[in-house]
Specification:
The chain is mainly alpha-helical. About 60% of the residues lie in helices and about 5% in strands. The radius of gyration is 22 Å and the shape is rod-shaped. Bound molecules: zinc ion (ZN). Zinc ion binds next to helix 2. InterPro entries: MBS1/2-like (IPR045230), SERF-like_N (IPR007513), ZNF706/At2g23090_sf (IPR026939), Znf_C2H2_type (IPR013087).
Length: about 70
């Protein structure tokens, strides 16, 4: 009967799902890259401002922590 067509349909569906997954992953990567913040003291890259604050409190307690706004670009 229509076994061949069913198989083809399943293959197309799998292909679409894979494309969806790949797109989601690349978007996530772009978002993560966009959130990187550099420590002004030692130039280490942090994923976000909260981590930078934690890093500065731990590693550079004498340095003034810049405001989150100063990293917006
Ligand atoms: Zn640092």
């Amino acid at each position: 009967m229509a076994r061949g067509a069913q198989k083809e349909q399943a293959r197309q569906k799998a292909q679409k799902e894979a494309a969806k997954r790949a797109k989601g992953a690349s978007q996530l990567g772009a978002r993560q890259a966009g959130l990187q913040i550099k420590c002004p003291t030692c130039m280490s890259l942090m994923a976000n401002y909260k981590l930078l604050v934690q890093h500065m409190e731990a590693k550079h307690p004498k340095e003034k922590i810049p405001s989150e706004d100063s990293f917006a670009s």
